[in-house]
Design a protein that fits this description.
Layout lengths: L1 H15 L5 H17 L4 H23 L4 H19 L1 H9 L3 H26 L1
Helix pairs in contact: 1-2, 1-3, 2-3, 2-4, 3-4, 4-6
Length: 128
């Protein structure tokens, strides 16, 4: 289901034009956490499969049009993966924190927050 959802969003983007890229952000914010939530015990894996599937379909669409090499596509692929991870991360962070003792949550919050900030800064650096 996660693989089909990622491909469906890129299919919609292809026919709606790039101005419909808001559909990709809505997919990252709402659909990815929902699909991961209804999955069995591997929510974190399904979460990343949803995002990586949409990125892989996006790369395939760019390469199909032509004119770009595979290495030229890696930069937008990273930006879309990082943006999708940042936008959909509150739900997986919540699921992860539910399993951790309350005394250890603050210790784990620091590396998670630093990781999200680093991803955001990398996207800012790449896109400017």
């Amino acid at each position: 289901m996660a693989i089909l959802a990622g491909g469906a969003v890129v299919f919609v983007l292809r026919y709606a034009g790039w101005s419909a890229s808001y559909a990709l952000f809505a997919f990252d914010i709402f659909a990815v956490p929902f699909i991961a939530y209804i999955s069995d015990g591997r929510r974190l894996l399904v979460w990343q499969v949803c995002i990586l599937t949409s990125v892989a379909c996006l790369i395939g669409g760019i390469l199909r049009v032509g004119g770009e090499t595979f290495f030229d596509v890696l930069q937008p692929a990273f930006v879309f993966w990082a943006t999708g991870t940042i936008l959909s991360s509150p739900a997986p962070i919540h699921w992860f924190f539910r399993k951790v003792d309350k005394s250890k949550r603050i210790i784990l919050l620091v590396p998670i927050a630093v990781s999200l900030v680093v991803l955001y800064l990398m996207v800012k650096l790449i896109t400017h």
